[in-house]
Amino acid sequence: SIVDSCCVSGLLACNVCVGVLGQLHPQVLHPWRSRGKGLVRVKRDWIIPPIRVSENSKQIPETLVQIKSDKIFTGEVIYKLEGPGVDQEPKNLFEIDDKTGVIRSKRPLDREKYSSFSLKAFALSPSGERLENPTTIKIVVLDQNDNRPVFLHSPFVGTVSEFSVPGTSVMTVTAIDADDPVTENAVLSYSIIGQESIPPNAITKIMFGINNETGAIYTRDVGLDREVVKEFKLKLQVADMGGMGLTSEGVAIIHVSDINNHAPQFSPDLVAVENRNNYELGRVNVTDRDDTGTGNWEARYSIGNDHGGNFAVHTDPITNQGVLTVVKPLDYEAQSKYHLFLEVENLNPLSSKASRLTSSIATVTVTVVNENEAPRFREDPIQIEVPESVQPGTLLKSNIAFDPDNSDLRYEISRDPESWLDINRDTGDITAKRKFNMRSPHVKNSIYTAAVKVTDAGGVSAVATVAIALKETNDFPPQVFPLTGFVCRGGSRSRNGLLLTAVDEDLPPQAAPFLFQIPDDLSANWTITQVNDTHAMLQPLVDLEVRDYAVTVLVSDSGSPALSAEAQVNVTVCLCDSFRDCKSEAGAILGSSVGINFIALIIIVASAALLLLLLLLAVALTACGRRHHIKKGTGLLIGESEDDIRDNVFNYDEQGGGEEDEVRLKHGLGDHGSFYPGSGIPPRGKQPLRKDAPHKLPSPTYPRRPPADPTDIEDYINDGLEAADHDPNVPPYDTALIYDYEGDGSLAGSLSSIASGSSDGDQDYDYLNDWGPRFKKLANMYDPR
């Protein structure tokens, strides 16, 4: 076609357009027509049909069209494209080849977002000058069926009256399709694909239809009875392309509304539910032509043939109806039907002028509806009494429950913390799974508590507690305690002996009182005497030697049957002091009235005193030895130790303290020119010689008298510094000094680093008073007072 061959005619045209369209218009083949004596250019202006492009195209990039300008015959032409889809939102959908004029799509198009585009094409010279007027190019996006129809609601809800005639409109369902509405892609078709009635299967025939074009739902059959069916659930389907395309499903709920199609009447047959009471069973209507609201009109009802007193009747004061109620629960298994006689009469006595009929009697039949009742236990809790040592498999309880509806029951243990019980699932017989234990934490006051659950065939269940009273049995023999002890030799036999008792893990009456005995063949030297129900005294029969003895003791409990156990008691026969405690051999030899404990205390105190004396003596000897080895004239801090002196303080003659020492400290010297470590002055004999002064000259006199006034301390120090500077025997200030190796890593700094960063008034020199008499003078010099 012309559109496919060429997009633009007129100022922007292709050669094909000129050839084809020239057949339709003579000006195309003859663009120059003579007017007078010359040729005149005829203006051409064609309307370009829209370019149609399918959405979701997979051929990317896709060539849409090629445009050409007739200016290409006179020079180079550059093509440009502008508009939505190129340089405006949405951008980068189309492009144009600036040399050939080919227009392409760069990405798949979505008609649901943009259905068409209007672009402008330009023919420009290389300098950017427009060669012709811009031409409008319209691109129309063709729709594809890429969207499913969607119902507007889910579910749709409607109502229809019962007994509606076929064709009655119920409601209209609506769906939408995002595809092009003018195409088949958006032509929708509705249908009903399923119908459910509530209650289920109440009506099985198709009761509703739907208009496949409009979605209107209507009744299509008779038989809508609310007493039979309450509502319908319809499964809907909508499809595009007239029902042949994409589909979606929805739901419509249609309620059947009630109409007054039953006149009120008394029903002689009533229905009652078993196991319920105090509810209204039905009403009896009566008619009385007397004045309404008077005693002549008001009715009074009574019940006959109600032997169990299960029913009652009273008058509704507004409607004058007889209200029949159930006052005692009915049991379907005991009686399923009741025939009652209801008698009604006026509250006021009937006039003698009335007819002989004074009352009215009606017969009412009450049918009891059976319900699935829960199983019932014959007792709750289920009481069981059993010895704790019962053997596994022993039957503990049977026939524990029954079902009023005579259905099959299933039993299970729902709670058994110690797993002591087992139950037959069919019969409910409870048996012991293993022996019980009275000492279990789940046994409280000799009662073990479990629970049993029973379920009938309808799934209704009941739970009952199982209370097992455990009886103590004699399971453990008693044990003698203690198994070791001593007996004093000599003295009164009534006082000498070892007191024994017994321990039994059983509880009374399976434990105490205990019986203590010595076997006959071992009772030659020992006897045992019962003290009370739990204790006995083990005593020697003869005066035994001081040593250890092993005595066999037999103890029995009071259980049924009684249990006994033998034990070997190790008894030491010893000499005792006045406190009836065993004493050592030394204490026995001494025989004094002083107890062994007091003697031991005296020995300990004496030993401690002797040890303290020896310690003091050793300290004194050590101190004397140190003084003996101190070198004469070397002070008190240095001895003859040959230890490494690195990082140690060198000691010098006592200097006394005061201002004189401060000068020495400044220059690293003592009174005798001794070396202070860290001062920067090497020991004498190793210092470099001065070249600016003669050698071996006497040193100047240093100031010795301290100033009387602390304010003169500055002059005193300056005098000392001046003397030191003129001392020929001291190295000059700027001389490279040679030091002895004094070790690495000393924690102590040099004496020259001792200084204060604050003024004298900021320092507290009271601590100098604590350093001894040699520093008191220095402390007085800096006393702020």
Automatic annotation (TrEMBL):
The keyword Flavoprotein appears for this protein: no
PROSITE patterns referenced in this protein's UniProt entry, alphabetically: CADHERIN_1, CADHERIN_2
Superkingdom of source: Eukaryota
Presence of keyword Chaperone: no
Keywords annotated in UniProt: Calcium, Cell adhesion, Cell junction, Cell membrane, Glycoprotein, Membrane, Metal-binding, Repeat, Transmembrane, Transmembrane helix
Membrane topology, record value: Single-pass type I membrane protein
Subcellular location field: Cell junction, Adherens junction; Cell membrane
Annotated ranges, domain Cadherin: 45-151, 152-266, 281-377, 378-480, 500-589
MF annotations from Gene Ontology: beta-catenin binding; cadherin binding; calcium ion binding
A biological process from GO: neural tube formation
GO cellular component: adherens junction; catenin complex
Main location (coarse class): other
TM regions (residue ranges): 598-623
Bias (Pro residues) ranges: 700-709
Span list, region Disordered: 674-715
SUPFAM superfamilies (UniProt xref): Cadherin-like
Stated role: Cadherins are calcium-dependent cell adhesion proteins.
PANTHER family per the UniProt record, alphabetical: CADHERIN-15, CADHERIN-23
This protein's name: Cadherin 15, type 1, M-cadherin (myotubule)
Species for this entry: Oreochromis niloticus (Nile tilapia)
Annotated gene: CDH15
